[in-house]
């Protein structure tokens, strides 16, 4: 069973994600907020909700070699690692629950080496759409900007999972929206760090709501 999970399922997951994503019609909002930073040769920290991650590996596939993705060190994480490797992404292993220090060190090293990093804002266990400290800590340690990133689909299935995962229906539309960058000062106090966490969470929640209503207007 473990052999199936680690060798066969990643290939199937990649094929499903790629084929379905290929059929989607893309709209982009606020892309320049990221480009203004990356044009200067600076990496970014992409922060998004767990339930909205389906389209991301496909969306950034052409630049995948310049990205590192934080993935938990569990068996499920290993399956995800093998799936995203088909898109060309590198990984940093760890989570806020296990190997948190290792994850932070790996992410800082990746940013210092010029890689942008992708991090699930509400972590691998939730609570759903509640910003955790990960992206803020990486910003504090590295000086990189954390950019909130929202995705929504014109037609999708919503899973009954803790993260309310969105699975797009083929040939529907997808919108990606970038929020305002947040940078955490390296020497800030814990109170300031919490203020930045709230700022990033509110920004991501706002553009998520904007994305959800994008195709209703």
Automatic annotation (TrEMBL):
Keyword ATP-binding among record annotations: no
Domain DUF374: 61-127
UniProt xrefs under CDD domains: LPLAT_DUF374-like
Keywords attached to this entry: Membrane, Transmembrane, Transmembrane helix
Record-annotated membrane-spanning stretches: 6-26
Descriptive protein name: DUF374 domain-containing protein
Source organism of the structure: hydrothermal vent metagenome
């Amino acid at each position: 069973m473990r052999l199936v999970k680690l060798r066969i399922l990643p290939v199937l997951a990649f094929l499903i994600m790629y084929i379905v994503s290929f059929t989607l019609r893309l709209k982009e909002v606020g892309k320049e907020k990221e480009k203004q930073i990356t044009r200067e040769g600076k990496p970014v920290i992409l922060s998004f909700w767990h339930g909205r991650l389906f389209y991301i590996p496909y969306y950034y596939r052409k630049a995948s070699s310049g990205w590192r993705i934080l993935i938990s060190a569990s068996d499920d994480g290993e399956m995800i690692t093998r799936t995203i490797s088909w898109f060309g992404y590198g990984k940093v292993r760890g989570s806020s629950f296990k190997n948190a220090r290792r994850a932070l060190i790996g992410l800082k090293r990746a940013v210092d080496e010029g890689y942008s990093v992708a991090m699930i804002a509400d972590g691998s266990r939730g609570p759903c759409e509640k910003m955790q400290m990960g992206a803020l800590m990486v910003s504090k340690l590295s000086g990189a900007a954390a950019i909130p990133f929202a995705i929504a689909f014109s037609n999708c299935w919503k899973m009954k999972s803790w993260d309310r995962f969105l699975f797009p229906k083929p040939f529907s539309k997808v919108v990606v929206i970038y929020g305002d960058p947040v940078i955490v000062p390296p020497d800030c106090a814990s109170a300031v760090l919490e203020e930045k966490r709230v700022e990033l969470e509110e920004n991501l929640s706002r553009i998520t709501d904007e994305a959800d209503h994008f195709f209703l207007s």
